[in-house]
Write a structure and sequence with these properties.
Number of helices: 7
Radius of gyration: 19 Å
Helix content: 55-70%
Low-confidence stretches: none
Largest sheet: none
């Protein structure tokens, strides 16, 4: 498959991301960090009508901000895919199909389990991957650098284990 577009060089993407981080974290502009994990419990609390709980009070400021940020990420990804003319709705990605087969039930089950573990880990770690790696990493926070290293090691182990080729393939 021939590529129709030329991707942004990694250096420019890094420079733009660092400028975004400076703007977002600046006390006089928005005084926030890049992150999205609080958006999920915040949105769930809004849907369930649990806005008066201590936890919802604690995450209200960051949860609303992260809900807006997450909405922008989703809208931007969709718009980018539409502009590049490669938007497709796929329940089973090609790599999954190659290694795990065609079972939709299996795909939905593992997507749910993976998402649940990811969000649980994010809440336990006090922030999500984007919060720790992007914001914390740019600030050279030791906890974020340790988190990033552990996440990378976990990614390698999980990828090696989960995407093993089937014996009959």
């Amino acid at each position: 498959m021939e590529e129709k577009y030329k991707p942004l060089p990694w250096l420019w993407a890094g420079i733009l991301l660092s400028i975004l981080n400076v703007i977002i974290a600046n006390v006089h502009l928005s005084d926030r960090l890049i992150g999205v994990s609080a958006a999920y419990p915040y949105f769930s609390g809004l849907l369930a009508g649990l806005t008066d709980t201590a936890y919802m009070q604690k995450i209200a400021k960051s949860g609303l901000w992260e809900l807006y940020l997450l909405s922008g990420v989703i809208a931007g990804a969709f718009l980018s895919a539409v502009i590049r003319k490669d938007f497709r709705v796929r329940l089973i990605p090609e790599r999954w199909r190659e290694v795990k087969g065609e079972s939709r039930t299996k795909r939905i089950f593992w997507a749910f389990i993976g998402g649940f573990l990811l969000l649980t880990g994010a809440r336990l770690a006090g922030g999500c991957t984007s919060g720790h790696v992007l914001s914390g990493g740019m600030q050279l926070a030791i906890s974020s650098l340790v988190f990033g290293a552990c996440m990378f090691i976990s990614l390698l182990i999980t990828g090696k284990f989960f995407y093993r080729r089937r014996k009959n393939a």
